[in-house]
Amino acid sequence: MKKVTNFFSGSSQEVREMLTQKMLQASDNLQFEEAGRIKSIIDNLNLALFKQNVENENYGDIDIFNYSIREDKICFDALFYLNGKLSFKDYVVLDYDHQDISDLFKSYVMQIYQKNIVPKNIVVPEGIETEDLELLYPDKIDNSSKKYQVLLDLAKKNAEETLRMTLLENDSFTNKQEKILEQLQKLLRLPTFPYHIEMFDVANIYDEYVTGGMVVYKNGYPSKNDFRKYNIDIQHQDDYHRMQDMTYRRYQKDIFHPTNLPDLIIMDGGKIQVSAVNSQLEILDLKIPVIGLVKDDHHKTNRLLN
């Protein structure tokens, strides 16, 4: 209770830090429901603080937009006032690679008003190109009035806080992924850290339509741009030769590009699948560790084969 009292008496940063650390600790312990619950508390306290800060002003029906950039992320934040009271808020965090901020801003505002009523006034920060927005929402856009500066500052502060927490969560998740990969390296006695992992499987319908798939992970994250699908049309109708065909096609093109090769290959299968891949790696004179995921009678992985 004392911490909550401190929050409303001006010591909000201390309370945020305490709750954020508890949230990250829960996430590290894989207690994702608890981490989500704490995050909801933080969001609700922030909303309550915003209401407290502006409750003595009468701003009418107005929506406030602002943004913040940190590292490779951008956050757009919106505060919605009805009859002068903060009714709700919204935000989005996007990857940022030096795109045009005004274009991103316009897209966010348009997305908001696809599902919400347009108010009497829409306030955006200085520096945002508003020509397109003014065409979409005539006589609504304000990016120069000082009357709403306190609200713009609140929206920006909220965006900054959202980015700070997002990056903390990302760092926590990345550290957790790296620890898991380090454990995998020790378990399998891999010569290098398994930053780049490729996984293969084959599917077929009555041996007529046979396809293979490759899924790629880099530093514990799916690398979807590297995913591949292989149509397999060979004379031999068995998993051994199908795996040979798919993996040879994958790795022969990168014999002279070692940076494109994985640190670990994972096969959906046992001895047959692992042997098939190793036979092709030997032909190509490549030394890449290969393991298989051996399934039980219920099609669940019950052991690793290397």
Characteristic key phrases:
Nucleotidyltransferase, domain 5; seven-stranded mixed sheet; alpha/beta; 306 residues; single chain; 43% helix; five-stranded mixed sheet; elongated; 25% strand; 3 domains
What do these coordinates show?
The structure is a single chain. With 306 residues, the protein is of the alpha/beta class. It folds into three domains: 1-54; 57-173, Ribonuclease H-like superfamily/Ribonuclease H (Nucleotidyltransferase, domain 5); 196-305, UvrC, RNAse H endonuclease domain (Nucleotidyltransferase, domain 5, 2-Layer Sandwich). Helices cover 43% and strands 25% of the residues. It is built from eight helices and twelve strands. The protein has helices at residues 2-8, 12-28, 32-54, 101-113, 131-136, 149-188, 239-252, 271-283; strands spanning 62-70, 73-82, 85-95, 121-123, 141-142, 196-205, 209-218, 221-222, 228-231, 264-267, 290-295, 301-305. Strands 6, 7, 8, 9, 10, 11 and 12 form a seven-stranded mixed sheet that branches. The chain has a five-stranded mixed sheet with strand order 3-2-1-4-5, with helices on both faces. α8 (271-283) links the parallel β10 and β11. α2 runs antiparallel to α3 (32-54), α2 runs parallel beside α6 and α7 (239-252) runs parallel beside α8. The longest helix has 40 residues, at 149-188. The chain is elongated. The mean pLDDT is 85.
